[in-house]
């Protein structure tokens, strides 16, 4: 196999990000058909929601892996390497395996003029089929109803929550966004959700067999400081006690929802407990050693994410800490700053080098008027300004987190522009 040609295929794929998001299922269905319908080789679970869908998906996939079956996990975006999006049995697929499959997908994708995320979704299905995956947890990309992952027919659907984000595409109200996310539900099939109960009628109209947090699902959470949470999860006919390393009350809620989903999939208590404990979700409230102290990485890229981060820092007794912040230009930076400023001792504003969507850090500065602010051009410069020892936090765009993380761990980032 020509490594240069395969790398060229990855450059081709990343270039397709510039064509933007084109909601709809016609192209991805046609692409899957040309690839031999690989999505039919395994059972799929769709996980959607405004926030928390990634950690919920990671928890559920870990439980499936702990059960001993060959399970897959499809997530987006990746932090550092494209192959992070595809894991089997808890392990990231080798980059060369992923790129070789992409080379085979490319002609069919070009024939149907598939978008970046449609290609990535079909590629995931092909990889999982060829790896002999029995069940795959598929994180929804954007919305639900017209997202490429919705071309699959899920055995179970999960909707974590609904909040305002991507309003230019999904709608300007919680109700409009809920309608879009509810599109991943299937009539008569099991589903779990933690959405605000006022939005439930918009989900229930689809006729799914729905369990709801605060109704069929009860989650009791005991904080274990930086070790995560001890959870008691009660569902119809069963109660389980598990531990999760996920931080934050939202982490506990997401883990509890994953437990309920695992029960609906018929997993044993032992598999649920072991998987919950083994969950690892990089870049989301992830604490890494740094210069004699710790750096907490979190993709708090929208107002609700920033609020959850600030709440977590208070509950952990962190006090005011230095923050590195960078967000995408289409986010509500004023609302993000309003949540983060009260927990910041200083703010270092920067941007992801490889993300054309990143906001100019200088334009963010006025939103942090009550905190000392410094503006730097790139993540490496931001890291250099952090004081040694103690706790610092880097948050905002996952593209920023994806560039900071290898700098902390001593790795390398891909050199492609990041849009999706």
Automatic annotation (TrEMBL):
Pfam families: Mur_ligase_C, Mur_ligase_M. GO terms for molecular function: ATP binding; dihydrofolate synthase activity; metal ion binding; tetrahydrofolylpolyglutamate synthase activity. Signal peptide: none annotated. It catalyses: (6S)-5,6,7,8-tetrahydrofolyl-(gamma-L-Glu)(n) + L-glutamate + ATP = (6S)-5,6,7,8-tetrahydrofolyl-(gamma-L-Glu)(n+1) + ADP + phosphate + H(+). Residues 283-385 form the Mur ligase C-terminal domain. InterPro entries: Folylpolyglutamate_synth, Mur-like_cat_sf, Mur_ligase_C, Mur_ligase_C_dom_sf, Mur_ligase_cen. Keywords: ATP-binding, Ligase, Magnesium, Metal-binding, Nucleotide-binding. GO terms for cellular component: cytoplasm. The keyword Ligase applies. The keyword ATP-binding applies. Residues 47-262 form the Mur ligase central domain. Its EC number is 6.3.2.17. Belongs to the folylpolyglutamate synthase family. This is tetrahydrofolate synthase. It comes from Deinococcus hopiensis KR-140. The lineage of its organism: Bacteria, Thermotogati, Deinococcota, Deinococci, Deinococcales.
């Amino acid at each position: 196999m020509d490594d240069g040609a395969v790398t060229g295929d990855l450059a081709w794929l990343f270039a397709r990000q510039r064509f933007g998001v084109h909601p709809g299922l016609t192209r991805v269905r046609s692409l899957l058909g040309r690839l031999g319908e690989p999505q039919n080789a395994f059972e799929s679970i769709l996980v959607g929601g405004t926030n928390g869908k990634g950690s919920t998906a990671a928890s559920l996939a870990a439980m499936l892996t702990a059960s001993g079956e060959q399970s897959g996990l499809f997530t987006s975006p990746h932090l550092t390497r494209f192959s992070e999006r595809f894991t089997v049995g808890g392990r990231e697929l080798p980059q060369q395996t992923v790129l070789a499959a992409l080379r085979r997908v490319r002609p069919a994708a070009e024939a149907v003029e598939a978008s970046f995320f449609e290609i990535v979704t079909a590629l995931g299905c092909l990889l999982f089929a060829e790896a002999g995956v029995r069940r795959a947890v598929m994180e929804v990309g954007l919305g639900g109803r017209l997202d490429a992952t919705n071309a699959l027919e899920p055995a179970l659907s999960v909707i974590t929550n609904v909040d305002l984000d991507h309003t230019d595409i999904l709608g300007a109200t919680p109700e409009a966004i809920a309608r879009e996310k509810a599109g991943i539900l299937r009539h008569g099939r099991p589903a779990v959700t933690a959405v605000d109960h006022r939005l439930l009628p918009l989900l229930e109209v689809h006729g799914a067999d729905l369990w709801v947090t605060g109704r069929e699902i009860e989650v009791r959470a005991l904080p274990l400081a930086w070790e995560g949470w001890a959870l008691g999860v009660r569902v119809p006919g069963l109660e389980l006690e598990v531990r999760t390393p996920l931080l934050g009350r939202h982490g506990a809620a997401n883990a509890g929802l994953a437990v309920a989903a695992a029960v609906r999939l018929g997993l044993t208590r032992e598999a649920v407990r072991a998987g919950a404990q083994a969950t690892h979700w990089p870049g989301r409230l992830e604490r890494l050693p740094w210069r004699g102290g710790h750096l907490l990485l979190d993709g708090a890229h929208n107002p609700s994410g920033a609020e959850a981060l600030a709440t977590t820092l208070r509950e952990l007794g962190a006090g005011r800490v230095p923050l590195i912040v960078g967000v995408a230009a289409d986010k509500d930076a004023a609302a993000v700053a309003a949540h983060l400023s009260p927990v910041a001792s200083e703010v270092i504003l920067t941007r992801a080098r490889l993300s054309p969507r990143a906001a100019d850090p200088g334009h963010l500065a006025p939103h942090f008027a009550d905190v000392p602010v410094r503006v730097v051009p790139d993540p490496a410069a931001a890291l250099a300004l952090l004081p040694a020892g103690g706790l610092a936090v880097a948050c905002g765009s996952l593209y920023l987190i994806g560039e900071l993380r290898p700098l902390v761990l001593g790795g390398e980032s891909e050199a492609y522009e990041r849009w999706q």
